Amino acid sequence: MTAILSIWTPERVERLKRCFDDGLTCREIAADIGVSRNAVIGKLSRLNLTREPRDEGARPARKASPRAPRARTVRHQIRMLQAEYGEAPPEEPIVNGHCCSLLELDEQRCRWPVETPDASDFRFCGNRPVHGLPYCAGHARLAYQPSSRPRVARG
Predict the structure, then answer these.
(1) Cβ(110)–Cβ(129) under 8 Å?
(2) Cβ–Cβ under 8 Å, residues 37 and 28
(3) How many CB atoms within 10 Å of residue 136?
(4) Cα 124 to chain center, whole Å?
(5) Are the C-beta atoms of 105 and 98 separated by less than 8 Å?
(6) How far apart (Å, rounded) are the C-alpha atoms in residues 123 and 134?
(7) Tens-place pLDDT, residues 48-89
């Protein structure tokens, strides 16, 4: 049977209290005593040793992180299609007469994949896209369909 030895000998506890009173950080105390920072935090908690909260002027203010631009929602994309074509995009058949490879693909071509990526004749649609969208009108009609059920707003 193995004995469980405590890392907190009476000498280490006294050293912990002295370092804490001297204002050392938990990381500095841990390095001084030879234990982990979490062990120091846990022991300080069990001994009910706390510091007074620092005033906000002592800590440098954090920089506000720039917000990433929000992704376009399907609803926004449907509104863009309605603005371009009125109430609904035309129900014309999709003609893939302008197919292009990945190397030929640019912002002036529809990015809808034709065939499966592992097929030897894999191409992209290549038709003129709707302004502000990556797809032509026919493929945008397929890609952006309003949901039949209402979505719950996430907070």
Answers:
(1) yes
(2) no
(3) 23
(4) 29
(5) no
(6) 15
(7) 998 877 666 666 666 666 665 555 565 666 677 677 666 655
Give bridge partners of residue 113 from the DSSP assignment.
124
Residues 6+ apart with CB under 8 A from 61: none
Three-class SS of residue 124? strand
Contact assessment for residue 137 and residue 90, using Cβ atoms and an 8 Å cutoff: yes
What is the token pair recorded at 24? 């050392």
**Contacts of residue 50, Cβ cutoff 8 Å, sequence gap at least 6:** 44
Q: How many residues does the chain have?
A: 155
Contact 81, 130 (CB under 8 A): yes
Q: Would you list the DSSP string of 23-80?
A: T--HHHHHHHHTS-HHHHHHHHHHTT---PPPPTTTSPPPPPPPPPPPPPPHHHHHHH
Structure tokens at 53: 């909260």
According to DSSP, the residues that pair with 123 across neighbouring strands are 114
Residues of the chain with pLDDT under 50: none
Tokens in use for 73? 């929602």
Contact 103, 126 (CB under 8 A): no
